[in-house]
Every structure is written in structure tokens, then in C-alpha cells.
Write a structure and sequence with these properties.
alpha/beta, Rossmann fold, elongated, 20% strand, 348 residues, 2 domains
Amino acid sequence: MTRSPVRFFQAIALFMFAIGLAGCRNPAAAPHTSEATSGSSPSASAHYTLNLPEPPEPAIAIPSSPAKRPYRIAVSLLTRDDDFYITLEKGLREEAAKEGVQLTVESGDKDLNKQINQVQNFVAQKYDAIILCPVDSQGVISAVTLANNAHIPVFTADITSNGGKIVSYIASDNVQGGRLVGEYAAKNLLHGKGEVAILDLSTVTSVQDRVRGFKQAIAQYPGIRIVADQDVPGAKRENALPVATDILTAHPHINLIFGINDPVALGALSALQQLNNKAVMVVGFDAGPEAQNYIASGSQLKAEAIQYPHLIGKTAIDAVVKVLNGGTVPPKIAIPTGLVTQASFIKK
């Protein structure tokens, strides 16, 4: 049997990547940033600081008066093992203290049964409101319905439920973020022409929004073609490497790759490093600390949309207080995203 040269080269790339991970993994870091890209992550953070202020809170969520009493608000997070949710929880706690409400925060730890049990306890303890970051948008419906039947308002943050009554869903504007990245890539990196590949996860709603925004921006430039749009299983870094390697081998004239989150974008960067390909550029979404280091240092990772989890947490608390005070909020509150490029950093 003749061995496929693509698979043979991919196997070599995977082997080399595994060696790099074995020597560079930081088990104490959050999942989005724990696996080092091939070679050492640039220490740009020692020399640069991100100069990108948090946008203002959407006015529609801000209560017109302080909390009428110290409301009891319960939260079940998706996880605490992630920089995003650590920052989101900080936003929740800071705003709860400011508003003078009582806050209980637990983590579902990506375990649906655990999260359902938490909601059952919240209902039994008769909290005034519940904020959920669902572990499973479909599986959490029964818990939402339980709270609905107990007349406890349910809000969702970052991720929402596919059913039950949700008063308001507070999350990043992923379409806008994808559009920001696509416009920057088309205008500033590709200068209106070139070939683009997307490393996708098409089963996830937030990713669908990111890709839709990216494609909307790219569509304004007839000289740019999307030649590949392929899913990365689990949107994981270790899976992005072989997918990117296959695409780069099949489409040798690609100019740019869009990765739908940090792990995928950094996996694509690893593939380029393993292939010794210095021509292809990468853009992504999330802009966590490691990605920021690569962008600031002038690597092939050129830009990423950045979310503001602190603002999501703050806005969620304010929306709850506004509703409990007797006000109304829209069913979806979109938190704007920003764009991180090398120009976003200033020297320390």
C-alpha cells in the first residue's frame, strides 16, 4: 500500500509537536493557554502592556436605582478552570458588592448533573434570581424549567439554554467580533486579495456567529477567496495542528488562516512553525495572554478579537438587579468585542 505523503508529513508534525508539549506544558495554567506552541512562547508581556480599555456597559442593562433590598442571587458557572470564567466571576462579584446584593457562586465544572443539582439547591433555597453559564445548552433545560416553575427568574451569561424561559442572555457579540477580524485581515494583511482558510467548529452557535461575521467582512473583497473551511474536533489545540497541516499541504497558496478561538489559532501557528512556513498569517478569536504575547512580539499571529468577560459578569448582575427592581431588559444583551493587533500594545 502506498503511504499518503500528506499523512506521513502530518505524522512527523504531530510527533514533533508532542515533544514540544512534553517539555513546555504548564499544568497550572488555564486550559486555553496551558499547552505551549512549538518553541517557546515569546515573553512580550515582560516588555509590552495591552492598551485596550474595556468598553462601556450597555445602557439598557443599568438599573435606574440601587437594589431595593439585598437580593439573593445564585450563579452556576461552566467552570473555574479557565481565565475567561475567572474574570467573569470577578465581574460578578465586584458588581454584586457595589449593588449591595448577596451573591453565591458555584461551578458546574463542565458536569451537567452537577450543574442541575446546583440549580435544584438554588430553587430549594428560594434565591431571588439565578444566573447560569450552561454546561450543556440542551441538557440544562430541565433545570431552567424547574426554576421557571418556582417563579425564579433565570438569566444566562456567555452561553444560553436551548429551552425554558430565559429573562436575558448576556454574551459577547460574536458576529461583530468575527467581522472585526475579517475586516482587519482583508484590508491590512491581505490588501484585498489572497486565499483564506477557516479552522471551524460549525456545531457551536457562538462559533457560527464568529464565522458568519468573518465571512461577511471577507465578502466585501472580491479578490479574496475562502478555499477551505474545516472543523477542528473540540476546537482543541492538539487537533488544530493536523487539520491545519492537511489544509496547508492541500492548498499551498493560502495566505491567511482564521482560527475560531485561541487554541485553534495557536495550533495553526504550530503547524506553520513545524512546516517552516513563514509566509502564511494567522488571525483568531479570544486574545488570551499567550496569544497576546505572540501578537505583541510580531509573530505570524497578527490579530485576534478580544472578549470582555469582566463586563459580561458586571452586566449580568446589573440586568438581574434591574429586573428584580421591577424594570425590563431585552432578551439578548450583546457585549461588544475589541480587536487586538500589535498596535494595541505599548512598551512598559
